[in-house]
Amino acid sequence: MTIKDELSVIPSGYSRIDPWVISQDTGAEIEFLSRAFGARERGSRILNADGTVGHAEVEVAGSVLMMFDRQPGWPHLPAHLRIYTEDAQETVDEALAAGARLVTRPTELAFGDVAARVRDPQGHLWWIFQRVEEVGPEEMGRRFADPSYQAAMAYVQSSLAEELGRDGE
Length: 169
Known about the structure:
globular, Glyas_Bleomycin-R_OHBP_Dase, VOC family protein, single chain, Glyoxalase_6, VOC_core, 33% helix, 4-stranded mixed sheet, alpha/beta
């Protein structure tokens, strides 16, 4: 048996896909994540020679975010991350109290989720979801034809388009 045969494809504590989040100030981002989403830093930060964060990891909502500081000359790379929560409104309120800006108010959508968005102080866009019901294909088809659900989807789409338009300014 080779060492490769004994190793798991995915190291313990990680998932098959773990996002990297590059921030202007990773320390401030970790503080925001702790206050808004109950994240906790794991392990120790690795600092670059200039004191910037070269690597950090946080656990939030059962996932691992790998993080490091943006370096001079690099473009701004705001992340877009979805988080499922027990209560979307409560989570939005916590994110706003931690310094985020509201992008999309909590809105019930045809497929059984409430969706909201906030932009955090580092510029990352958080898609906050709350599962409220399982919706079968027949009911979903009916809902997509319902003007109130169409208006909800139009609002969610337009609030995102408006926010992303700000990135080009």
